[in-house]
Write a structure and sequence with these properties.
Layout (H helix, E strand, L loop, with lengths): L1 H15 L5 H13 L1 H22 L22 H21 L24 H16 L19
Helix pairs in contact: 1-2, 1-3, 2-3
Length: 159
Amino acid sequence: MKNTCQQHRQQLALLSVQALDERDKAGALAHVNECEACRTYWEQLQTVAGLLRMDAERSIEPMHTPVFARPERRRPLLTWPRALAFAVGVFALCTTLVLIHKRPQQPDTILSVVSQPTPISVPTIADSRRLVKDLDALVETPHRTTDFVFSVGSRYEGP
């Protein structure tokens, strides 16, 4: 039944704009008399089609003003007097900030701190030989311990 109602609604839409032949028109109107839902749909279609016909029959009056009238010119946002006033205001604000800004006070006394140079110990060839000898002795020991710390950059003073 739903498929039949859908087919009749398409026919009713065509009938509302007078685009349906007489044979189909009789069948669609017969269905409208039997089906309440299609009758409501047909009344809504007649209302819409009537409004469209009224709108189409309405006469259009000519306008007295031209359609392509030039819009009023708007005043530019930035003119020379406004730009000058803005520049003077910015200058006055910057000048005020510079004059009001407090400068940091200088300390009463200036202390000069000079660090003392630290002596640099340069390993000699004898120190290198002694280090190699101690490392060889350490490798040859039967039980190695993890307590041995060797720091690069410091002078090795052997055991």
